[in-house]
Specification:
Layout lengths: L8 H36 L3 H26 L3 H35 L1
Helix pairs in contact: 1-2, 2-3
């Protein structure tokens, strides 16, 4: 869109500036999100760990939701379905594996 106005190295410079602005916005917005979630946890007397896990869960599923909405709006429902099924399979397998690893390590340390 903006490439029609900028040619050559000017376009690359503009892209780098946009990338840096994007990084700054992401970093500042994540700081604001964490601060707001921490204050909300204190006000509601909810454990901070629960709020942290909720933020992580939202952060990991947000890209999948965005891709699913974009593919459905483009008329590619199969991509959205594959995204949901693949995500569920990976989440189940990884969570099971990490849970098993964690429980085996914690039981070994408790027996000593």
């Amino acid at each position: 869109m903006y490439d029609t106005f900028l040619l050559g190295s000017d376009a690359m410079f503009f892209d780098i500036i946009l990338l840096l602005i994007g990084f700054i916005v992401i970093i500042k917005s994540s700081d604001i999100l964490v601060d707001a979630a921490s204050s909300l946890a204190l006000k509601l007397k909810v454990p901070k760990m629960l709020i942290a896990l909720t933020i992580v869960a939202f952060g990991t599923c947000a890209p999948e939701v965005a891709i699913s909405f974009q593919s459905v709006s483009a008329g590619n429902g199969a991509i959205a379905f594959g995204n949901v099924v693949g995500s569920c399979i990976v989440n189940i397998l990884l969570n099971h594996r990490f849970g098993k690893f964690y429980s085996s390590n914690s039981s070994e340390t408790c027996d000593h």
